[in-house]
Every structure is written in structure tokens, then in C-alpha cells.
Amino acid sequence: MTPLIRANNLCVDRGAREVLKRLQFEFLAGEFVALLGLNGAGKSTLMEALAGLLGYSGSCAIEGRELRAWQRRELSRVVSFLPQTSVQPAGVPVRQVVAMGRYPHSGGWTESPEDRLAIAMSLETCQCTALAARRFSDLSGGERQRVLLAAALAQETPVLALDEPSAHADLPLQARMFELLRARVAAGALCLAVVHDINLALTFATRAVLLHEGAIVFDGDPRAMLEAAAFREAFGPDIAVVRDGNGNPIVTYRRSVAS
Amino acid sequence: MNRRTLLWAVAAALFAALATPWLGPEQVHTKELLSGDAAEWRIFLALRVSRSLLAFLAGGSLAITGAVFQALLRNSLATPYTLGVSSGAALGAVIAICLRVPVVPLAALAGGIAVLLLVLRLSSRWSQLSSHALILAGVSVTSVCSALITILHSYAGFSQSFAITSWLIGGVDAVSFSSLGFYAAAVLPVWALLIYHAPAWNLMAFGESWAAARGLNVRRTSLIGYLAGSWLAALTVSLTGPIGFVGLLVPHFIRESSGSDHRTLVPASALFGAAFLCACDAIGRTVLAPSDIPAGVITAILGGPGLVWMLSKERG
């Protein structure tokens, strides 16, 4: 199987700072990759680079074609990127936000029947149908995140690059979001998600990529990551792994105020 | 897209364009006009119709630019003048007035364009046309231009000082049909361009990485928006002086009443802006007739409280 994304010696600078250092990876269709690491490790930079928003050196190819050779519009039909932060302009109805995901296909003036179907389906999958007529800026943080995810899904791309998709989401919502992403992956998509909650990654991801100071220090099975020395090194000595009744690992913080 | 808002906008614009020429300090001799009196028609066209048409195009240009700049800069307080175009135009006009050269509009246009190029150059040097850099560059250039205007103003003679003051207030006056024709030919295609890019303004209002991730060429589209809007603002200011509040108030009003879809907002801003400035100018020349209050004064008097009222509605 040829990889959807293949990077070789991928380096990204921001200003004078070298943020990503000689990354090497291959991502396949049908993988759910959780991107883990501390703040400032380079996770968001990697996402933005894969979305074609940053300059880079080395090589990074999507569908066998070097990233810098893609036209913006073409690339956005293959990679749907959900940025970590977005602006909340006043007065935009939810449906219009989700419809923006169809811009790469339709150009934004007209809606084809496929566009309408994609919008309706993503609204439904993200449980936003009831919100469709409300104004985006009036929603709660978690609702907004759901709507933005729906827009990213409406783009109907083989690659999803999501920077903290579960930010602001409550616990059940986080699980629902990751379940629906898992369904996309099962249908053949490649999903890359920056995740801060390691337990979410353990539960849903098929592969964990751990970034530390701009380098990939672990790449493999999420549970195997817990045993890796790189994991302890990145997250520090206070991270503890306990087991639930079924023997599944749960990552927690060692110190507790209560005890 | 909101068809009802667009229909209302078309109706308002048509009504303003057709009704305002009949309003003014002197009664229009309707009977003579209807009987086809050539002299009467000439006066009516030269004094009233040309003035209404100028107000129409100027109001539309300012409001459409305001709507686009607010999306591009992601700042609801952005106006056509945020990038400093009007201060450059004002400086050009004031220099022309002080030197007693009779090409004030051309000097204003040159000043506006010079400042625009300077601002674009400054902000692309710091960062790639980011909205912060543009606003900052616009604010600094504006303050320098205002200072220079103040200096020139203080050294100007009495009649020039009067001319400077009245130019800086901004108002609509009768213009020749040839300048009006040139103005219309220069702004209407740009209106069409800005309307055509409406889906892109929708994306830009959500931030640059959001827009780029949906497949928009952000740098190119921003540049089109800034250049097109500033061209409208510079041309308009060169003919009318810096009329305030139209570019701020009209897009806000539409956003408040029918939401923020630029496919509606941009064309409706042009049409409502046109109607609004026509109306303000008609009010200015009738309320205290025979004295003529500049349209810029009326827009400010209506605009200040209007904005406060709208913001209080937004909060409440």
C-alpha cells in the first residue's frame, strides 16, 4: 500500500527558530494517528505544514506529489485542516460555517446537490442539525468546536488534519467526536489529530506519534508508547500509568491534592 | 444568500436615486420639466441629478469597501480609511490648496494612492500583509499625514484655510458629467469584483489559516481586496473629501439585520450605502435651506448615535 503522506527529512522553521527537525514518517489510509507532545513540541506546526500553510525544507509528499507543488485549491480537496484557533465573526449562521467546507469543490456561490448532501450529513454526524439556524458566535465553546469539525468533515477529503478537535468539548462529546472520526478512518480516511488527553489517544488512535522538542521520539502503537523511555522523558516523572478492571492502561497524574 | 435583504437594498437604492434629485433648497419646476423645457432640464441635470449620482456612487463605494475591509482585517471597526488612504488623499488635497493649483481631486487621488503603496510596502516588510501590521502601518501613516495637514493649515492664508476646512469635512457637490462618467467607469467594475469575491470574504472573516485550509489563496485574495477597496476609497475621497461613518455604519446595519453572509452583505452594502449617502446629502441641502450642510456632517450626526444604538441592541 502506498502511503498517503510520506515525509523525509522534513524541517520547518518559524522565524529564526527551527521548530520541526528532520522528521521522517509515512502515514497510510485507514490510520488514526494521534499527535502527542508537550506545548511547543511542534504538533501544530506539523499540522499546518501538512495543510500546506508553511514553507519547509526536505521532502513531504501527499499522494506521491511534493506538497509545494500542489495548488491551494487542489490540496484542500485532499487535506481538510482544522486550525486550533479560529475567529468568531458575529452574525454567521451555523449552516453557513459548515457550508464553507464545500468551498474547494463549489467555489462558494452555488450549492450542488452533492454539496447540500455533504453539508446535511456532516451537520447530522456532528449533531449540529438542531443548531443549523443559530448564530455561530452565540454558541458555547463545545458547540462551536462541533460546528468547525462538521465544516472540516463536509470537505470530504481523504486526509483529516485536526488540531485539537476535542478542545472545549465535555467528556461525552470528546468520546462522540473521536468515535465519529474512528468511523471515518474505518471508511478509509487518514485522520491525524493533535490530542492532549493521552487516554483519548489510547482509546481511539491506531498509532501514536510523540513529538518532543521538534523531533519524533516515538512512533508506533499507542499502548507501546507508555512503556517507551521517550514517553517518560517527554512527559516527566509525575505521569503514572494505572490499569482499569479490564487491564486497560489509564494515564494519570501521580500527585493528588486529596491524598 | 438573503434575497429579501437584497430586494430591499435594490428598492432603497432605486428610490434614493429617483427621489433625491427632486429635493433641494429651490423647488424643481416639475411642470416645465414635464413639458420638455431644455433649459430647465439642463439645470436639473447639472445641479441635482449629477449631485445625487455622485452621492450614490460615493456612498456605495465607501460602504462596500467598509464591508470588505471589516472581513479582511477581522475588525468590525475597520473603515475604508483604516489603511490611511483618506489621510493621504487629504494631505494631497491640502498641498494642492496651499499651492493654489486647481487640481485638488487629482492631488488627493495621488496622495491616497501614495499612502496606500507606502502602507502595503511597510506591512509586507514586517509580516506578510497581516491585519495587525496593516492596521498599525495605517494608523502611523495617518498620524503623520494629520500632523503635516495641521502644519500646512496653520500657515495657510484665510481663504485657503477655509477651503481646507470645508474639504476636510467632506461633502457632495455637483460635478461635471464627464468626471461623473469617469468616476462611474472606475468604480462600478470594482464593485463587481468585490461582489464576485464574496465567498472569499466569508472565509477570510474566519481567519487566514481557516481560509487557506478551505483552498483559498489568501495572499492573492487579500491583496485584491486591499487594492480594490483602497482604489474605491481614494477615488471617492478625491471627489467628496473624507465622508465618515458610511463605511462603518452601513455594513454593521446590514450584518445586524440579516446576518453576515458576504454574498448578501457586500452587494447590499453598496446599495444601502448609495441610498444612505443620497439621503444624507438631500437632508443636508434641505433642512437649513438655503444654507447647504455638507453630507459629511449629516453622516456624522446620524452615524454616531446610530452606531451606539446598534451596539446597545447587539449587547441587549
SSE order and pairing:
The complex is a heterodimer of chains A (259) and B (316).
Chain A: E1 5-14, E2 17-27, E3 32-36, H1 43-50, E4 57-62, E5 65-66, H2 72-75, E6 79-82, H3 94-99, H4 103-106, H5 113-125, H6 141-154, E7 159-163, H7 171-186, E8 190-194, H8 198-204, E9 207-212, E10 215-220, H9 222-227, H10 229-235, E11 239-243, E12 249-253
Parallel strand pairs in A: 3-8, 3-9, 6-7, 7-8
Antiparallel strand pairs in A: 1-2, 1-4, 4-5, 9-10, 11-12
Helix pairs in contact in A: 5-6
Chain B: H1 3-19, H2 30-34, H3 38-72, H4 85-98, H5 104-126, H6 131-155, H7 158-169, H8 177-196, H9 198-204, H10 208-213, H11 218-240, H12 246-258, H13 262-286, H14 295-315
Helix pairs in contact in B: 1-13, 3-8, 3-11, 3-12, 3-13, 4-5, 4-6, 4-7, 4-11, 5-6, 5-11, 8-11, 8-13, 9-13, 12-13, 12-14, 13-14
Strand % of chain A is 25-35%
- The amount of helix of chain A comes to 25-40%
Main sheet specs of chain A: 6 strands, mixed
- Specify which chain pair forms the largest interface: A-B, 34 and 26 residues
Tally of alpha and pi helices of chain A: 10
Backbone CA Rg of chain B: 20 Å
Oligomer state equals heterodimer
Through-space gap between termini of chain B: 26 Å
> Residue-averaged pLDDT of chain A, rounded?
91
**Which parts of chain B are unreliable, with pLDDT below 50 for 5 consecutive residues or more?**
none
What is the CATH top level name of chain A? Alpha Beta
Total number of helices of chain B: 14
How do the SSEs of chain B run, as a string of H and E? HHHHHHHHHHHHHH
* Count of strand segments of chain A: 12
Decide which structural class fits the backbone of chain A: alpha/beta
